Each structure stands twice: as structure tokens, then as C-alpha cells.
Amino acid sequence: MGKIINGKEISNDIKEEIKEYILKRKELGLRPPKIVSILVGNDGGSVYYINNQEKVALSLGCNFEKLLLNEDILEEELLKKIELLNSDKEVDGIILQLPLPKGLNEKKIINTISPTKDIDCLTYINQGKLFCNEKTYLPCTPNSIITLLERSNIELEGKNVVVIGRSNIVGKPVAQLLLNKNATVTICHSKTRSLKEVCKAADIIVVAIGKPKFLTDEYVNSNSIIIDVGTSSLNGKITGDVDFEKVEQIVEKITPVPGGVGALTTTLLIKNSCEALENNEN
Ligand code: NAP
Question: Which positions in this protein are listed as binding NADP(+) (predicted)?
């Protein structure tokens, strides 16, 4: 296996597994999973994500519905729509595109989604389960990191992993998932001292800070495994948090940007909908 951890290749493997799963169900006369993705308003990033979700879901044989709502929708109306989706037996997974327009109570709206249909792991109940190491839908970016490592046959148990970044969507949940896999995890942030030394002593470094090319050759050694989560725009190009050209020459394994962590997230979201379908049927 080469030095570059190829997210696209791993994503394609998982896509094949999903396709096969759905095909087998169809052969047995069983329906595919159905996802409803809600977009309130027309935030540029969210429009891109929802269109991409639709494209991937349909290509794998899922049913997918976009629920496009006006940005001036009343909160009660949005809550009612979510409740209707919660009680619709034909709907397995609900995705809510974030951020919501100003004026809407994001936390309340997220937590109205039924945890059994919350395939993006946004609700407090599912996040609580994740932190208690109970079965739940894994949040896509943290799950992508774990999947890239595991499918590259990188053992996590007992490894020293440094996570740089402590956001609620990446740093904290990935640290918890790594801990659930029996890694020894150090979480670093903007106030961490001697970050270079801490990183150099690690087996695996996950960097999610949104600072292009931050992690240079001074942070790594020849045995380091580097997972780059960053996706900043630099001179019109999507750029990771790692100075790839320099670091790649030294380390054992590394993910590229693009084509690393981000290449898997939508695929894993669709995979969660297959799990949701089974939960819905039981
Ligand atoms: P965020 O909420 O802005 O959090 C950034 C974290 O980085 C904070 O915890 C911050 O520390 C820490 N940090 C900032 N500068 C630092 C420094 N110099 N040294 C050490 N730590 C530092 O970011 P996020 O939402 O987690 O996203 C991080 C990056 O991942 C962004 O580029 C984002 O676009 C990308 N991302 C990619 C995907 C994907 O699918 N590929 C998904 C989500 C996010 P403090 O807490 O001390 O401020």
C-alpha cells in the first residue's frame, strides 16, 4: 500500500458495497432507503452539498427528496414539517443543512429530528450516545477519518493520536471515536503549548483547524501518519491544514486535500441511511 491514503478509492469501495446492499434488497422486493434533505434559504455552500447528496444518493439507488424551504419560513411551520417526516414510515433519514437562516432556533430545530432518523448525528441524543460509546449513526467527517485509517489497515488500539482542533463537528467527536477504538488521544487547540513536540511524539496526527499549510515538516517524523481535515480556500484552490509537498516526503502515510477526508463524507451519510432503514423496519 502506498504512502497516500486515497479517499476517493475508499469512497468508491464503500459505494459499491451500498449499491450491492440496495440491489439485493430490490431483488427481494424490499425498498431502498429514503432520505429527505432539508434546505432553508439558499446558502451557497448548502446548495452545493444538497445537490451533491442527491447525485450520490440517486447513483447508489436510494430514494432522495430535497425539501427546499423559504428563508422566511416560520419556526413552527418548519418544526411541523420535521414532525411529519419523523412520523412518515417511508422516510428513513433526515438531513438538515446548516447553518439555518438567522432568527431560527437551530438547536431546537435540530433536536426535533427523531434520533432514529438523524443520520448526520446532530441531535443531542445521538451525540450523547456517541460520547457514551453506545451504538448510533456516526457523524460523517469524524467517521471518514476513522474509516480512512481502518481501511488503510492502520491499527488504532494503543496508538498515540494527536487531534489538533476541538470543534463540536470534527475535533471533539473524532477524539471520542478514537478513544472508543482504544487509542490514547491528546486534544490540542490554539492555547496548547509546545505543539510541535507534542505532534512529533505522536503516531497519528489529525489536523482540523482551518489554517492552510499550518502543519509543516517540523511537526512530523518518518513514522507519522497524517490525516488532514482542513479545507480552506487559498488562491482559489481547496487547501488542507498540512504543507503537503514538504510533509509528504517525510511521513509514513498522509491524506491529500482534496481526495482525502472530504471524499468520503457524503458516501458515509448515505451508508448511515441504510442503517436507518433497518432501524425503521425493526
Ligand atoms: P473550527 O470550528 O474553526 O475550529 C478550529 C479549531 O482549531 C479550534 O479548536 C481552534 O482552537 C483550533 N486552532 C485554530 N488555530 C490553531 C492553532 N494555531 N494551533 C492549534 N489549534 C488551532 O473548525 P472546524 O469546523 O473543526 O473545521 C476545521 C477545518 O476542517 C476547516 O478547514 C473546515 O473547512 C474543515 N472541515 C472539513 C470537512 C470535510 O469534510 N473535509 C468537514 C468539516 C470541516 P480554539 O478552540 O482554541 O480556538
Answer: 165-167, 231
